[in-house]
Amino acid sequence: MALLDHFRRRAIRDHATAGAFIDEQAFHIAESCVRDYSRLRAGDGADALLADPAFAAALDKACWEAYPRALVMVGTVAEVALRPYAGDNAHPMLFGLIALILDHFDQRPVPRAIGDVEWRAARADIERALNDLVRAQPKTAEAVARDHSSFYLAIMPLHPKLGADDFAALGSQLKLALLQIQEAFGQRANLPALANALAGRVPKVEAHEAPSAPA
Length: 215
Fold this sequence. Notes:
- This protein is mostly helical.
- It has helices spanning about 1-10, 15-40, 45-50, 55-85, 90-105, 115-130, 140-155, 165-190, 190-200.
- The N and C termini lie far apart (about 55 Å).
- Mean pLDDT is about 90; it is low at about 1-10 and about 205-215.
């Protein structure tokens, strides 16, 4: 994983490096999971199938559908690592982390394969899922992978030349990716400083989130 190796050489010490790490790792999980799992199911005919224009378009759509969910997964792993260092600021730290993740999501143009309506719905899902961590116990990487494996299975492209689903292989792939990210984040992040910085972050209020004026 060249991308993961790249981040292992960089310190994660502030908003910029933490946000870039989470976003790029989420994008990597989304793309590699969809493509590698499809290749596994295609077997010896994988190269030909992945080169088919119609199937390639379906793969692209699935990758973009997976990306917001991957942000939730990587954000959950990061929050678990940061929580012990946040102390009484655990909730502000989480809200700062959510704002950081959404900032990076918003920097990506709306994918043509998805469309604006679905993209905005995905953004709301990210915020809702991460806000739920306020009431959740810390989860292992394995538990996070297990929670989201069914979603990934549901969005995988369909094709007559694909073999049977392998839910266990998909879950193992997600778990391994999250364990590697967890290790890299723990090794390179200045967790106390980052938790403090995130707790002090003031989330940006989007125009659609502002209170409505009285009628």
